[in-house]
Amino acid sequence: MQKASIACYWMPAIIGMTALATVGCGSSDKPAPSESPAASTTTSAVASPPPATTTPLKVNGEDEVAGSIDSVSGTKIEVSWPQGSASVSFSDSTKIMELTPVEQADITPGKCVTIRPSSGTEGGTVTAEAVVIGASSGGECKKTGGADNAGLPRSPLGGFRGNVDSVDAKTIFLTTLGADGSSTKTTVEVNDKTLFADRHRVDATAIVEGKCIIAGGTNDTGGVLQALTINLPLVVDGACPLPKAG
After folding, report:
1. Rounded average pLDDT per 10-residue block, the chain, 246 residues
2. Is residue 182, in this structure, part of any structural domain at all?
3. Burial of residue 132, with CB atoms counted within 10 A of its CB: 0-12 exposed, 13-18 middle, 19 or more buried
4. Residue 168 belongs to domain spanning
């Protein structure tokens, strides 16, 4: 009886599955009839290529990367984001800020907070997507003159800073101070979907695998974002928050 032999081959990025057909053998005083070779069928599946490395987005003249930290080696960070993957480098001069969760009860009169509206505009009544406690500047909680993202991804509605005047179960009464000394009163409504967080300065040891990141800076000729600022926002609903389209 003849025995069939199986040879296994490894091919890059290809997994082969070979079906072996059995061969029947007979014994006789007469020469055995000619046998047809066994038919074999091969099915191949080509693995998907890894995500392509992409260049950062250009936002207000600055390059930006937002996604999840895959790995950290020294001062180099590898990030996964919807566009693929990106590399971020930081230095001792990079400003690193992190958001940590707080309770609504931590929002008390006198606190400096940034309001991220889900609807409404400053000076009226807004519904807050997020309320983020931040440090005042020189003892005052003044607006920066532009949209304040509070370390969160960009939003078409932006955000604004102000002093908490008073609070009740579902409302924060806020005074925002303009750079020109003007003040504006805003009524901020919160609900079960409102995110409450505290944003504060941290060192490079806070940059670890698995955290979310929003890095801004300048993309160099090698395709690496040289970060001037790094924000480490919270994971929201099991995923890293991403900028919203305007």
Report:
1. 42 36 42 46 42 50 87 97 90 96 96 94 94 81 75 86 94 88 92 95 97 92 91 91 73
2. yes
3. buried
4. 99-199
Distance CA 18, CA 6 (A): 9
For residue 133, CA distances in Å to 6, 75, 108, 110 come to 67, 28, 10, 11
14: Cα within 13 Å, side-chain hemisphere: 11
Q: Is residue 72 part of a domain?
A: no
List the end-to-end C-alpha distance of the chain, in Å, as a whole number.
75
- Of the candidates 129, 134, 121, 147, which has an alpha carbon nearest to the alpha carbon of residue 190? 129
Number of domains in the chain: 1
Q: Strand 84-89 and strand 195-201: pairing?
A: unpaired
Q: Which is nearest to 98 in space by CA: 223, 182, 201, 18?
A: 201
Q: With respect to residue 106, please indicate whether it lies within any of the assigned structural domains.
A: yes
Whole-prediction pTM: 0.72
- pLDDT at residue number 41: 42
76 part of a folded domain = no
Residue 122: both structure tokens together: 């400053």
